[in-house]
Amino acid sequence: MDGFETALIWLDYAAVAVFGATGALAAARRKHDIVTFGFFAAITGVGGGTLRDLLLGAPVVWVHQPAYLVACLLAAVAVWLFGAKRGRYRLLIWLDALGMAAYSVAGAAKAGALGAPPLTAVVLGVLTATFGGIVRDVLADEPSVLLKREIYVTAALVGAATYVGLGLLGVGAAVAGLAGFGAALALRAGALVFGWSLPGFPGRASPED
Fold first, then answer.
1. pLDDT of the residue at 142
2. Residues 86-115: b if buried by 16+ CB within 10 A, e if exposed
3. What is the per-residue pLDDT for 2?
4. Nearest residue to 16 via CA among 58, 57, 56, 76
5. Quick one: how far is CA 98 from the chain centroid?
6. In Å, how far are 132, 175, 194, 198 from 191, measured between CA atoms?
7. Residues 6+ apart with CB under 8 A from 121
8. By C-alpha distance, which of 90, 66, 63, 76 is closest to 19?
9. What is the 3-state secondary structure (H, E, C) of 24-40?
10. Directed axis angle between helix 153-168 and helix 88-113, to 10°?
11. pTM of the prediction?
12. What stretches in the chain show pLDDT beneath 50?
């Protein structure tokens, strides 16, 4: 196992834990119990990776490596014990940005390692990075990122596409991974700080639509 593969594994665990923490924070906002904290953390942490593995026909990673679930549960316990009562939402969205950026690269990298074509790897990177957060929002009865115009899925797309594109140009995996992570995080951070968004469909829907 080379250095990048080792780093990718740790990146995967880190992304799972960060996403797990966002799930637990969502539970905290609704004042749920510790069991629900763990459930939200697990669903959010491994949801995107589960969908990716199922679509690739690969073994679902947390079924064979329960350490991923342990990372989610530890994140839930940490939020339960140390989560700040104030500023939870702001912490959630920034942790979510970090997890999304990491997973956009890790998801695309795993898809490529399993033989997915470049475009498919990009799409699976996006799904890995966003699906867990979407499920979290639905379960927590929060407004889904898919229903907002702020940049989120686009940031995951940029991260995954940057990683895959640089790889096709012969750039080393480690450099491509850092570039993809940085591009996704920078774009999402710009959306959060400066309110960047994509233009909506012009005009107004008619009553008959």
1. 82
2. eeeeebbbbbbbbbbbbbbbbbbbbbbeee
3. 62
4. 76
5. 8
6. 20, 24, 6, 10
7. 108, 109, 111, 112, 160, 164
8. 76
9. HHHHHHCCCCHHHHHHH
10. 30
11. 0.85
12. 206
CB 45 within 8 Å of CB 71 = yes
Residues 76 and 38: beta-carbon distance below 8 Å: yes
| Residue reference for tokens 């880190």 | 14
185 CB-near residues (< 8 Å, 6+ apart): 97, 98, 101, 155, 159
- Distance between CA 109 and CA 160 in Å, rounded? 8
The predicted pLDDT at position 120 comes to 97
The label of the residue with tokens 């990491």 reads 102
Phi, psi (degrees; rounded to nearest 5) at 197:
-155, 160
Find how far residue 74's CA is from the centre of its chain.
18
Asked if residue 138 lies in contact with residue 144, where contact means CB atoms within 8 angstroms, the answer is yes
Per-residue pLDDT of 60-111, as tens digits, reads 989 999 999 999 999 999 999 887 566 667 877 888 899 899 899 989 999 9
- Pick from 154, 155, 175: which is nearest to 165 by CA? 175
For residue 112 the two structure tokens come to: 């490529």
Residue carrying the six token digits 């940049």: 151
Query: How big is the CA angle at 77 (ends 107 and 59), to the nearest 5 degrees?
Result: 30
d(CA 13, CA 103): 10
The angle, 0 to 180 degrees and rounded to 10, between the axes of the packed helices 34-56 and 118-139 is 160
